[in-house]
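Need tokens for this chain, all 183 residues.
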Amino acid sequence: MPNLRNDNLYQIALAGVFTAFGIVLPMMFHVLGLGSTFLPMHIPVLLSGFFLDAPAAAAVGALTPILSSIFTGMPPAFPVMPYMVFELAAYGYVTSFMYRKLHKNVYISLVCSMILGRIVSGVAVWMLTTFFGAKFPTPFAFIAASITKGLPGIAIQLIFIPAVVLLLKKYQIRATGRDTLEP
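Here are the structure tokens for all 183 residues:
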């Protein structure tokens, strides 16, 4: 039986690392004006889902855009940050749930989370438009535009994230003799 205290500390520490990475990485892209094209904040959040329990990964997804907005001004507090909170929380939760609970492979977990996260962002955009007067296109047009503009970032995610997860899993097996990404 794993030590729950150590597992909680591991989850908290790793969540902090992913959140910090989710703040710093986009800063490098935004300097070049490439944030919304390469989607750098999505990478650490999606990665967190492969290494953290679903609630912790969802927390990374929700906290990263909030803290980034506070510390760097990116994303803008309104209207962008609110829908990103829900989208990225969905990314973290769904990735973890699919990979760690349902034991789906890296690609299925990643693609399902990317699809569901976009749907959640569309719902959040609809809510922001309907209830708060935010100026967005229709949710379907918003999702289509975000996918089109973010295609380079989506390609990077589909190539980079599975490679990192598989390399770390291979390293974990070699280092511990266990076929798991658990602490």
